[in-house]
Amino acid sequence: MKSKLLLLTSLILLTVATSFSQSSASSAGIAVQGIARDNNNTARISASVSLAFEIYYLNNSNNAVPIYSENVTLQTDAFGVFSHVLDPGSANNAIIANNIAYLRITEGASIISDEKLKHVPYAIAASNGVPTGSIMPFVGTVAPPGWVICDGGSLTSVPSSAALIGLLGSNNSPNLQGMFLRGAGVSPVNGQAGPSLNTTQNDAYQDHGHFNNFSINNGGNHSHTTYLKQHATEVAGAGGNNANVRAVSYDGNPPQVNGDIIANPAGNHSHGISGGVSWANYGNRSSETRPVNYGVNYIIKL
Hints:
Elements: E1 12-18, E2 30-35, E3 48-58, E4 64-75, E5 81-86, H1 90-97, E6 101-107, E7 110-116, H2 121-126, E8 135-138, E9 147-149, H3 162-168, E10 225-226, E11 230-235, E12 245-250, E13 261-262, E14 297-301
Antiparallel strand pairs: 1-2, 2-5, 3-4, 3-6, 6-7, 8-14, 9-14, 10-13, 11-12
């Protein structure tokens, strides 16, 4: 008597494909459909089949690294067909999207199928299949499925957040409220260092100078000399006398003719200056220096 109606290699997998839904993240997953047959190649109609599903990828040593596994008992229909959707979760979907993944199906000790998953670009995009920890701007207040707002909130109660917590080394999302993003490491252009990964960098101003503390050098006790130039004008003498009379005037241009005229000394003294900055000339005043910007929420991928 045949008591072992195993699927064995007679299980015909009609489709094994990634089928991510764009309209609803809850329906995202890997759809598996097949026909269960016994050793006589007869369809196992209206029967229960207990299957184990395992998704994995191969590391550099060609060893299998588990991604997701699930054990389930399925009911076949009147034609022996069964259907099931595996939902690895958003975090595992990212791992699947970034590795060559395989799906192994077993019943008991028998391997039914062990096939490479082939990704359709549309399906990966529809599942928001970007790597865990990716950050992007978002013009909304509620993060889409598979993402969280970068507001410093706790991740411990968020489903599928373990991988993100591992990357951040923190149980909280990064708080990027009012922040600009900057690449970690040292710039190849100007040699300036950005913040360390997963840390913030305070505001700063590049070293520069301003004119200040104006003063006038003390000239000491001194005087100034003024030079007058003499001009002579001859006029006829009175009463028919031919003697000449010289009239003298001075126009202040050197060289002197009849000696120096010296100004009174002012003594030891200095002069101050006055004035200041007119802030109205600098546009909008603020407590920070910033470029023109647009407000968004940052979200991070689980």
